[in-house]
Amino acid sequence: MNSSEPSAPAAASEGRPVWLAGGISLAAWSGLAWISHTSLAPLGWMLGTIAITWAALGWTLRSPVHPSAPIILGFAIAFRFVTAWAAPVMEDDHHRFLWDGYRFATMGDPYATAPQAHFNDETVPPEFRAVLDRINHPEVPTVYGPLTQWAFRLSHVLAPAQLWPWKLILFGAELAILALLWPVLPARGRLLLAWCPLAIFETGFNVHPDIFALALLIGAWWLGRNSWPRAAGVAAGLAIAAKVFALLLVPFVLWRLGRRAWAAAFAALFALYAPFWLRGSAADLAGLRAMAGEWEFNSSIFALVQAVASREVAQAACALGFALIWLLLLRRWVNLPAPNPALPPGEWIYGAFLLLSATANPWYFLWLWPFVALRMSAAGITALAAVSLAYVTGLNLGDASLGNFEHPWWLRPLEFGSVFLAGCVSYSRRRQTRREACLSI
């Protein structure tokens, strides 16, 4: 036997931290799933669970022993299995998902009316009356794209007013992302992709649909990488029709795939939107317009600009800033040697978008998740971890001195300051490494 190979007991002892980290995380998620069905105040439990599971993941990421695929995937499935029985925590968006599925299945157009138009509608079944009463911003039409609406409708057909079919759809999307990215990820990236606490919480507990669109977007990249341009175009169009955020990355995915890919993307997009347009509906554009024009939550650079100027000036300045960053990134991408099978720089695109946006909900940061797993950075991981602090609001704190969705003065400096600090430390270390390399020549 090679003397450099560790003995079986030594290998087993080296693998114990991985099992311990996975076991602690599983216990934490199980506890939060139980809490989600009780009357206990969830904020502290949620933050504690997120902190524990990030600490366990960080410990494992820093371990010199790379966990095997069966261990990583086994715990990943176990985490999702626990969340299958969990209720959403400090979130009520799922009531909109259930309502949209009901309206689409029964009326054929979930965009036709805002939920508040049905407050006095006696034809609404009792189980959906309870759903309707809990929808947030009922005066605003739904903001979810046509393909996501079809998924809501399928969920409704399988089990009206129940979340489990929608959870199965999202679980399938997560599995697709894992399968598509697994071959190109380093060992630590696989672990982050499978165990990321933000993905487990925002998808498994709060059932936000971003994973659904992300799976289609990554599918478009994978199809293009394997020389199926038309299929890549269709997947890209479907991704945009699932959530408009995908539009920011689609030009990068389709750039080198030719006209057939672009034509297929436009055809898929038109096929999903046209039935609603022909009814005279604006589809999700009406809700998105209201959201973009009025809402502000957990913003960073936008909030700083708005503090010294009007909202309109802040919107224009941040939109212009993002457009410039996006164009520079696209130019750099276009000038890379072809063919270029790498995943586009989604961490930079969506990172800039979230920093300059007026609304940066925690689940929006899932758009960073697969790209940070591929190209791990201290700032990226810190952003995925720190954004859950956004749930510390007046409503969740029970603090009457704050508005329902208002943060304490210290929260955003802590949240975004930690990301900035992590980026600075990482940059300083890279400079030091380069300096030492130059001196050694």
Account of the 3D structure:
- By secondary structure, the chain is mainly α.
- The protein is 66% helix and 0% strand.
- Helix 6 packs across helix 11.
- 41% of the residues are buried.
- The model is unreliable at 1-14 (pLDDT under 50).
Features:
441 residues, globular, disordered N terminus, 0% strand, mainly alpha
Short characterization:
With about 450 residues, the chain is mostly helical.
Distance between the termini: 39 Å
What is the arithmetic mean of pLDDT? 92
Main pleated sheet:
none
Low-confidence stretches: 1-14
Inertia-based shape: globular
Count of helical regions? 21
The gyration radius over C-alpha positions equals: 23 Å
Report the oligomer. Answer: single chain
Helical content band:
55-70%
The strand count comes to 0
N-to-C SSE string, H for helix and E for strand: HHHHHHHHHHHHHHHHHHHHH
Find the structural class using helix and strand composition.
Answer: mainly alpha
Please state roughly what percent of the residues sit in beta strands, choosing from under 5%, 5-15%, 15-25%, 25-35%, 35-45% or over 45%.
Answer: under 5%
Give me the secondary-structure topology.
Elements: H1 8-35, H2 42-61, H3 69-83, H4 93-107, H5 126-133, H6 146-158, H7 164-181, H8 187-195, H9 197-205, H10 210-225, H11 229-242, H12 250-254, H13 259-278, H14 285-294, H15 301-308, H16 311-334, H17 346-356, H18 369-374, H19 378-386, H20 394-397, H21 411-440
Helix pairs in contact: 1-2, 1-3, 3-8, 4-6, 6-7, 6-11, 7-10, 10-11, 11-13, 15-16, 16-17, 19-21
